[in-house]
Amino acid sequence: MKAPVVVHHLTAAQAQQMKLIFEIYASVTLVPDEAGTFTLVAIYPDDPAADAIAVPKENTPAPVATVPATPAPPQTATAVADLADQPAAVHDAFVQNTIAWGKVLSSELRATIVNLATRLDCDPSHLTACMAFETGETFSPTKQNSVSGATGLIQFMPQTAQSLGTSIAQLLGMTAVQQMAYVEKYFLPYSGRLKGLSDVYMAILWPSAIGKPDSSALFVQGSKYYSQNAGLDVNKDGVVTKGEAASKPQGKLNRGLTQGLVG
Description:
This protein has about 260 residues and is of the alpha+beta class. The protein has helices at about 10-20, 75-85, 85-95, 105-120, 125-135, 160-165, 170, 175-185, 195-205, 225-230, 240-255; strands at about 5-10, 25-30, 40-45, 65, 215-220, 240.
């Protein structure tokens, strides 16, 4: 018997998209919560609980598998289409406890990322999507930007490494699993605030934007920060929004959920 799946903290758009995917396999109910988001409950046909759904409170033990929301609300129309084209992969990522890019990670690195996501109260696939973007899909702890010196799984800047009690030279000498200790140290101040992929990526790129709408402007043409991040200006209007910036790791999330990479 396949256990029901309960997914908390879905935006209205995300809830509708996930409902379309899960309805292929199960009976789906969307329940609004006090925070203005939705909980999705998927009951499979052979489950006797289908006749008596009771939505468990978050943090309340219940005989269902409660999982974080995957994927994050798509930032662009293209992202919506990409996910709609692979419903089986998205569905299986919930039911089989798989994560984006899981098949290219060592078992130890995968477990370390999943454990960190649990402590941060975020989706492990959002962490792997950001790492895939930052490392060019290599997940290499020695990946380095020759201009800025940014290094490793989340491209630690030299001053950031120093603030964490390490250095670029030391990070370069670490394995990916060893470097995860500093990834955790970096992310811990944002624990509980990473409600979607865009927030996870903002923790890396621009922490002050965590929790803000995806329409929020990050960098404006003419500023130093815009010059450094002009490649994130998707529509080339001279303003990089949070959603535009997050569309880059969103693309890696979509790719990481495809067959052969998700696991």
